[in-house]
Amino acid sequence: MTQSGTRVVAVDDYEPWRRFVSRTLQERPELQLIAEAADGLEAVQLARQLQPDLILLDIGLPTLSGIEAARRIRETSPKSRILFVSENRSRDIAEEALSTGAGGYVVKSVAASELLPAVEAILQGKQFVSAGLTGPAFPGAEDEHTANHPRRDNVIELIPQRNDAIPRHHEVGFYSDDRSLLNDLTQFIGAALQAGNAVIVVATESHRDSLLRRLRARGLDINTAIEQGRYIAVNAADTLSMYMVNGMPDPARFMEAFTNLILTVQKTVKAEHPRVAVCGERVHLLWEQGNAEAAIQIEKLCNQLTRLYDVDIFCGYSLGSVPCRMDSHLFQRICAQHSAVHVP
Description:
Largest sheet: 6 strands, parallel
Shape: elongated
Strand order of the largest sheet: 2-1-3-4-5-6
Number of strands: 14
């Protein structure tokens, strides 16, 4: 167990992510978040002043990168343990981060399930590396992780690999306003269309119209894509009605509805290995209605789709449009069903 009164500093330039870290640490009363920083230089200064027991450190920080900050922290606060928490999955980057003397590396998209176990391991003097990064590059970390933190089903689900080594993509984004949500959806859709792939958009009418304007503004020939059948946009509420039964998704109806859509648009792709991008906000509508459990069940069904078909899925939650806040437990459960989490 972790020692009582462990003093923690969280360093990340995205304030909502620091809020998530704070809520997560509150689950363990012995973990005391004593300060936060938004850039690498501030992290070094806080470490020198406070001499904390543990520093949770992002890599992509302004002013000074997390890796360089860690090197300086080791000099000014040598007793502080460091845990990197980053969305960067590069093993080279992780190796460089760990070479600073840090005790571990957690990928943000699995932080909901791995952050507290990682903190506990590091405070015990062990090393912890996210399951998605373990392997030949981290033989010692893999042994430690496997021995002390057996891989759970939800952790494995976040990093599956197809037989052809193409990763399954089921990503989620949490946004404070519609503009940020639409920006990321536009980028996701545009990248798929530019690659010659097909797109299925499940959104409200206003968002479907906004996406069309944004895609055209980017110079995409969206009219041709629609004529070819490579771009299909459907109403989120109507789609939900196709497979919701007594407030919960019926798995058979869900799979039938999306299988038909996926196979229909997949036929329009001329590439040798056609892929289909699916994005929208049907899960957001359920959460907005107060039916979070149904939203999570749909996220699980989406994972099944990624195992059956060559699809990339992006789910968006517009937090600014809902008066009530998403609590920490729900946030963690949603994150645990995705391969990546975006909190821009």
